[in-house]
Amino acid sequence: MQSVLDGLKRARLSRTAAGAAVAGLGLASAMQPTPGLFGVAALLALAGALIRFWSAGIIAKGVELATSGPYAYVRNPLYLGSLLVAVAFVLLNGNPWFGVPAAVGWLVVYHRTIRSEEEVLSARFGEAFAAYRARVPVLIPWKGRCDVPGAGTTYSLEQSITNKEYAGALGTLGMLVVFYAYMNWVDPVPFRVTAGGIALLIVAFRVVRRGRHRAAQEAQVAPEGQEGDDTQAPQAARAAAAGATPTEGADEGPDAERPAP
User: Is this model's pTM higher than 0.85 or not?
Assistant: First the structure.
């Protein structure tokens, strides 16, 4: 218990821990989905996972500004993919009231994240990022494709794998498998107790791990060029702009926006 409390004191609530907490609430309150609802949710979740995998194969964090591929449609395609997966989870949950805390939590966490990241990108890339931001929407691709001068990076499967985006894809598939089993074979009470308890254990594990990681970073200067999950800019600069110490690397989870090549 003390390790959990120490982790909470040392770390701001990470997106992974916040996501696990909301997931725990969602699983503990989930109703059994209907086949039709499961089908719609599965399409959204798979689309989100594909967008994330595509995006992770384009970015080169801290090296150049990603403006091609999915980044020609929105400035944060990885977060768009996460949003689609989150909507799928809310649909699979089946409780109308659960959409409220899920939506509020997502908006609070990602609004702050995107704002702080773009401040760092603006400082790092200057006029290039200003021109990119003026042309390309932040999250919803309502303009269609926006051609940006200098956008030439092509997709790399190796880059997606290096950025560990396969973990997010496997997590999405795991979510669908769990709800498919719930829909067909598992009774509501055992499902809610077991799945909700596992999610809470994940939250505790992430908080303890994050706290220990931050404690280690406070004891030494982070290596030059060390970078985080969610921005094209270096991790230390992003954390400084957000008023926090640098956070851990590309295993941060469903919101990992800018892994390094």
Answer: no
Does the residue 249 lie in any domain? Answer: no
The amino acid occupying position 189 is V
Non-local CB neighbours of 250 within 8 Å, separated by 6+ positions: 163, 164, 228, 229, 256, 259, 260
pLDDT tens string 195-224: 878 877 877 777 777 778 778 877 775 444
On whether the CB atoms of residues 208 and 10 are closer than 8 A, the answer is no
Q: Is 16 within 8 Å of 105 (Cβ atoms)?
A: no
DSSP tag of 74: -
User: Number of helices and strands (H, E) in the chain?
Assistant: 10, 0
Residue 261 domain flag: no
Contacts of 90 (CB under 8 A, 6+ apart): 26, 98, 99, 102, 103
Domain count across the chain: 1
What are the backbone angles phi and psi of residue 131, rounded to the nearest 5°? -65, -40
User: Who wins on pLDDT, 227 or 84?
Assistant: 84
Q: What is the pLDDT of residue 236?
A: 41
Say if residues 13 and 4 touch (Cβ distance below 8 Å).
no
Residue 85 lies in a domain: yes
